[in-house]
Amino acid sequence: MNVQKPGTNLRTGGQVLIDQLRIHGVDLAFCVPGESYLAALDALHDAPEIQLVVCRQEGGAAMMADAYGKLTGRPGICFVTRGPGATNASAGLHISFQDSTPVILFIGQVGRDMRDREAFQEIDFRRMFGQMAKWVAEIDDAARIPEYVARAFATATQGRPGPVVLALPEDMLTDRVACADARRYRPVQPAPPPEAMAEMAERLAKAQRPLAIVGGGDWDAEAVANFQRFAAAWDLPVGTSFRCQSHFDNTQDQFVGDVGIGLIPKLAERVKSCDLLLVAGARLGEMTTSGYTLVDIPTPKQALVHVYPDPEELGQVYQAALPINAGMKTFAAAVAQMKPPAKVAWSAWRKEARADYLDWIKPVPNPGKVQMAEIMVWLRERLPPDAFIVNGAGNYSGWIHKYYQFRRYRTQVGPTSGSMGYGTPAAIAVKLMHPERIVVNIAGDGCFLMHGQELATEALYNVPVVNIVVNNGIYGTIRMHQEREYPKRVIATQLRNPDFAALARAYGLHGETVTETAQFAPAFERCLAAGKPALIDLVIDPEAITTRTTITKIRESALAAGR
Fold it and tell me: Potential cystine with 392: which of 62, 200, 205, 423 (Cβ 3.0-4.6 Å)?
């Protein structure tokens, strides 16, 4: 588009804002409309290159923006209005913060003449979002919109990616100003110092039991391919951090498992006993370290090589033997050029770890007529490598982590923050971005009902996601912990669910109910063939509480321990 110069013509603040989004390459945005940013909505009417998706709840809209940011590396865009809208959106923003996802949340704000009076739905967004955003600001002058928006794109994508919040006073958006547009933002990637790479190569060559963990939000497909070539050349065993399982091809011989919740016990021991731990892109948070038990704080027993794009993260929890401040794209390009020694000392160690993983993913039966392991194995064999599996949070996701094999980067889309309700809205964003690819949303019944109303959005835009609701009639994760700590004292974990298939049909979707394993495959095929959004109500026995145990066994163990 033509860059506007001062004094040439007047534009409303809303027009200036949308012009900046066009300049920065925005093609998809999510919103719940509000009267406080009508001027921006009006400007979007004249920007057909930006597809605006209207959602049913702001949390869902923010989660859609998060999914966009995860898949593209560019900021996902979300518009909401005032206090209630921002409060709802905070659920999605928290995910973006903990998951290191670039997102820009625009919030319609009360007029400047009404601030600090507790006007209708007024909130001080700097205070509200101070802990869960990289930067929070309010634009008081429409002429400065290009400056603020350019900074927002840069801040959201540079260093550790994350969310930015910009509040838009209603009257500011209707001001008419003459101002210059910004240039399109250019992301910056810190490069690893040559001396650090030389030291890493030296440390790795001397290791006997090395292990790599990859994860985080700073990769792309090329970076993953480069790291996979490096791992193959060095025969390096590689695990992935929590909900980053598609950061490495699970079928490659060097992949040894998901280092998250319910990780392979033998892999947990390998993390503890390795002599060099290469962590690239992951923060080594609670989920990846099994509650900070796999790696000692502050000084790990393992020689820790920690590679991260934000220098402030390095040394925040763990003192690395070799900290490297680098973006994953530049780091992966560098390691892909590293020449391995003629022979490495750990090939047997890697082969044993791979054998442990392959044994781990063999189906294990669970109570009831629906066998979750068999269904996941069927999905991994049926779906093409580029199919997306999207999920929220809950014990049901353990079957995905254990049995599904991800082969392409970012074909797993899930919240590392552990936030329920993510899958349904996120799957919509994924399918809108990749309409030619299969998108499967797997959600627990409790998880699904957090944002199940976004089925209306699926119907409105005819987004043919296949939704699978794993329905056990309880808040499964909480019930598991409840039985472990307070056996037989069940409270607040029972659910009374609707007929999910009927609910789907009420929204205009194709609906199926599955109560036995053999029913799943034909039901899934009918969903794909329906040519519209679809849902499978997958009714499972609540006894099948995890991939490894049952409610009864957990309760019996707790009672035997005197709880």
Answer: 423
Residue 357 vs residues 225, 237, 251: alpha-carbon distances, Å = 21, 11, 11
Cα 120 from Cα 20, distance rounded (Å): 29
pLDDT category, 8, cuts 50, 70, 90?
low
For residue 4, pLDDT beyond 60: no
300 pLDDT higher than 60: yes
pTM of the full structure: 0.96
The pLDDT > 90 percentage for the chain reads 94
Indicate if the pLDDT at residue 2 is higher than 80. no
Q: Distance between CA atoms of 191 and 324, rounded to whole angstroms?
A: 9
pLDDT value for 5: 52
Q: Which amino acid is at 60?
A: G
- Using the Cα atoms of residue 227, residue 220, residue 246 and residue 285 in order, give the sign of their dihedral: positive
DSSP 3-state of 167 = strand
Q: Mark out the alpha helices in 302-396 (DSSP H runs).
A: 328-336, 347-360, 372-382
How does DSSP assign 278-320, residue by residue?
EEES----TTTTTTTTSS-SSS-SSEEEEEES-TTTTTTS---
Packing angle, helices 372-382 and 517-529, rounded to 10: 40
User: How many degrees, rounded to 5, is the angle at CA 518 between CA 516 and CA 523?
Assistant: 90
Q: How far is 314 from 482, CA to CA, in rounded Å?
A: 36
Residue type, 172: M
Range 120-128 average pLDDT? 83
Neighbouring C-beta atoms of residue 291, cutoff 10 Å:
7
In the chain, the domains with their CATH numbers are 11-177 (3.40.50.970), 194-357 (3.40.50.1220), 372-560 (3.40.50.970)
Q: What secondary structure does DSSP assign to 373-409, as a single string?
A: HHHHHHHHHHS-TT-EEEE-SSTTHHHHHHH----ST
Q: Is-cis flag, bond preceding 522, omega within 30?
A: no
Rounded CA-CA distance 381/355 in Å is 20
DSSP state letters, 123-168:
--HHHHSTTT-SEEEE---GGGHHHHHHHHHHHHHSSS--EEEEEE
Q: Which residues pair with 441 in a beta bridge?
A: 390, 467
For residues 447 and 469, the answer to whether their CB atoms sit within 8 Å is: no
Q: How far apart are the first and last CA of the chain?
A: 67
3-state secondary structure (DSSP) of residue 142: helix
Instruction: Determine which helix (DSSP H) or strand (DSSP E) holds 80, and give its type and residue range.
Output: strand 76-81
pLDDT, averaged across the chain? 95
| Token output for 75 | 């900021």
3-state helix, strand, coil in the chain (%, to 5): 40, 15, 45
